[in-house]
Amino acid sequence: MGKNSKQKMQTATEVNMKRAEPKQAPKQASTKVSAPGKIALWVLPFLLVVITMLIYSNTFSHRFVLDDHGIIKNNKITKAPVSLANTKTIFSTPLRKGDFSDLENSLYRPAVKMLFNIEWNVFEGDPHKFHIVNVLLYALTGVFIFFIFYDILKKKWVIPFLITLLFLTHPIHTEVVANIKSGDEVLSLLGILMALRCVQLYFSKEKIIYLLLAVAAYLLGSFSKESTVVAVAIFPLFIYLFTKADIKKNILVSSIMLGCTLFFLVCRHYSLSGYPPEAPVNALDNYIVMCKDPAYAGTSKFASAVNTLGLYIKTFLYPHPLSCDYSYSSLIPVGFSDPGFLISFLLLAALFVFAIMKIRPSGKNETAAEGHGISMQAVSFGILWFFIAMSITSNVFFLIGTSFGERLFFVPSLGLIIAIVFALAHYLQKGDEGSFYPTLSKSPLLFGLVFLLAGLYSFKTYSRNDDWKTDFGLFSRDVKYYPNSTHLLFYMGNHLSGSEFAENLEFDINENHLNIDLKDSIRKANLHSIEVFQRALSIYPALPSDGYNQLGKAYFNIGQIDSAYKYYFKAYSEDSTNPIFTNNLGTAFYNSSIPLSNLGVQYQSRGMMDSAQYYLVAGTNKLMSALPYFLKAHRGDTTESDFMNNIGCIYGATQRSDSAIYWFKKASAADPLDLTSVKFLDITYRAIGKVQEADYYKTKTAEVKMRRADKLK
């Protein structure tokens, strides 16, 4: 073998590409070991975990926000006791099943919902502990990233450490880590990484247990989020580049992973097939739908999707300002002549062509940088990871329920970070990797650049985390940067008119001894909610049905029942099967009866009996017209305490105390933290002279108030 050929062989083995090693490797001179010792090896991942915990430590006091409410806090399946029966329910129903809004039936993520179910029972619904677990799982992804590339690079630590550092500190991941619901993203990536690590160990140690663990890890990721299935294309690429497995073994392992993918898809189909088909994608969720609108003639779904991919990369490179929502009209459809599309298309095409060209060794010594093996194949792998991971959420091949979300870039971003760090190391890393300080001194530019980026990222991440503490803080901050995002305005309006805002406001006033009038503050919040909704309607003249419902609720909360009825009825007209819309329409009838009944009482007190009789009967008729809606809502969701309380109120108002007590007790049993039911039980028992029972529920009301306050801390 000639000198040049031998040098090529050694270079290839240094990066652990799948090329044959010499039968007898030349003995190394007695120099420093290139990898850190055992203590240092574990110090590095530990250091990365500590860094992660520090920069996300300010999330440990955060509350539930955004989708946390529907998937965790208000989800009866998530909050049910851990049991075999409930686990079966979790694995046979959509993710959002159990939330009484129950609008979306297309998401199947039972593994992460099972995690939330366990956490809810262990932590007694304490959101702070949920956040700690989410950060720990995120840090664990970093540990696996480190060891995967530490193994690939023959126990050299610099590149694995730098890749992991940039990944863990990057601000674009704040939505995933600071929002508990996005534990599905974390478990998805963790499942992929654990599977890749186990595949590595399977080929190096040749023990079947590692292959079985790889299967289990991949299934964990798949059952946590559907997009995990894209990894079926990552496995063969990873095995080809980073192991010494031959083509037959590669096909075998990749086929097993394909089988896992098919198994997951069958389970998903079986579990969701009994539910109504998903409604067409709403323009407020995905602006690309608007390409067919005459107002955007000349635009293209493909061009808009590619332009959005470019925006992802721009946000990745310059993560400011970040937002929980990017929707119309902060993003608008574009055509093929748009500069955003042209730049994005050329950039993506260049990256893809480069990746394909560099995926195979060329035979030249292009993988060496001053004698140090840094393979451009790894850069290619990172780029292809990005394209593979982004394919299912890019809207290029098919439309999904959203156009842009930072969480959707969580898995793809790892590919870009891999490519960037390997490319930087290719040109900037000098000499072999010995102990820390000598290595640092040999490559000051590499370390300086990455440490500077990591420092800036950490500062931005820590700062952005604060925005995610509460819904109000998040929406009010983000709407400053994206004032024309209709969906963000919709979020803001929903929150301001919701019971969650009122309850949190009351807690904050009491906890911090604020000199603020609660009723006046709630009224102002609802007026602001109406203003925000009307602003959203001025940008796009239609809201999701839930938006009309919440706009109706805002009017209801300030006593404008006619306006409330208008929007409640609009929501009900769009979806008469929704128990919330049905119930709220009933409340409009119920409350419109009150002025009539009050007027009847006034006439009665003046001795004007004919007028009194007229208005009392009219009030009762209006009141009873609400009952069918409340009963229908209850049939739609037999576990929701609000619906039972409303039925009880009808019977209480018509002097049928026994029936009222029955429904109030039923509501209290359905939700032990329901305050309305125990308050009305106190009132009802007191009205019929049962003071002992009334006092019992008065005490219980105080206990429930305390327990609810503890949940908000």
Core attributes:
713 residues; mainly alpha; Serine Threonine Protein Phosphatase 5, Tetratricopeptide repeat; two-stranded antiparallel sheet; 32 helices; disordered N terminus
Biggest sheet: strand arrangement = 1-2
Strand percentage lies at under 5%
Low-confidence stretches: 1-35, 362-373
Mean of residue pLDDT? 89
Radius of gyration: 30 Å
Counted beta strands: 2
In DSSP terms (H or I, runs of 4 or more residues), the helix count works out at 32
Tell me the overall shape: elongated
Into which percent range does the helicity of residues fall?
A: 55-70%
Structural class comes to mainly alpha
- Could you give the distance between the termini? 72 Å
Strand count, sense and barrel status of the largest sheet are: 2 strands, antiparallel
Question: What this model shows, in words?
Answer:
The chain has 713 residues and is mainly alpha-helical. It has helices spanning 3-14, 38-55, 68-73, 76-79, 84-90, 110-123, 127-152, 158-169, 174-178, 183-205, 208-222, 234-242, 247-272, 301-317, 339-357, 376-391, 410-428, 436-442, 444-467, 471-481, 486-496, 499-511, 518-539, 545-557, 561-574, 579-605, 609-624, 627-636, 641-653, 657-670, 675-687, 691-712, and strands spanning 368-369, 372-373. The chain contains 32 helices and two strands. Helix 15 (339-357) crosses helix 16 (376-391), helix 23 packs antiparallel against helix 24 and helix 29 runs antiparallel to helix 30 (657-670).
